[in-house]
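Researcher: Batch entry, complex prediction.
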Amino acid sequence: MVKWLAALLMALALSAQADEDLDKRAAALEEELRCLVCQNQTIADSHAGLAADLRREVREQLAQGKSEQEVLDFMVQRYGDFVLYRPPVKSTTWLLWFGPLLLLLAGAVLLVSRLRSARRETPAPSEEELQRARALLDNDKEQP
Amino acid sequence: MKRFILPLGVFAALLGFLWAGLHLNPREVPSPLIDKPAPAFSLTQLHVPERQIGTRDMAGQVWILNVWASWCVACRQEHPVLMELARMKLAPIVGLNYKDGRDDGIANLQRAGDPYLVSAFDQDGRVGIDYGVYGVPETFVIDKRGVIRYKQIGILTPEVVTGTLVPLIAKLNKEGGNG
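Model: Structure tokens for the complex:
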């Protein structure tokens, strides 16, 4: 009798643990998916009916043993890349991913070229100018 | 003067992007389902719960799938256009009654008129998910081979019907079933 009870408790504990893992995985995945009704919210945040349906879909598919990637693929097949909060890197999204880097590089190039030309435009002081400068400095020292 | 050219150019480019952005509709997400086989479904009929309706019943002909619900306000606006489309008899219109109550759906059609050959009853919205539905109403045109050729997100307007649907369906009707 005690053995049976222990086994039952063990099974319950294990299934509770499994549920918790599933909840965690589902919650993480729901943060990656965009709700198409309220477009700036994830399906985890949104209260739209569709978001609730998609959360149910995510949970069911994970419970069936599907991997995270399989669930994401399921969503992309139906709603397109737009459903992903992290758009995939491909030819149409290169500008999106690397545009900021491009701007940074352009800025750096501009800065360096400006600094160089500024240095070139200031000629070295002539001997005469140096003498005047020295004279001024010496005058300064003599005065109290 | 020359020093102003670069900032002015950058400003003009930004203005161009913003101007183009004004004319984009963020609600219209390109569907990945265009030119893909329509997801198969078989659901109970709205009016006759004992009978099924599905993609298999519509195979071999050009047909229109219209997603609607009694709670959908925009669907009411679209309804007269659908009635007109049904009168034209270009292609059968199948309704997908999406996340609705059976009684509410039937009452809605009784009040306003029923443009559908038959409506499928998708109470929990699973078929809707398969079709990537996110804003009711949505309309799909499916060809003889069961491939989705057009998707309208939001209401069908008379302009869309005469400008897009009529020529498209005429073209699809000429296509062979196995071609």
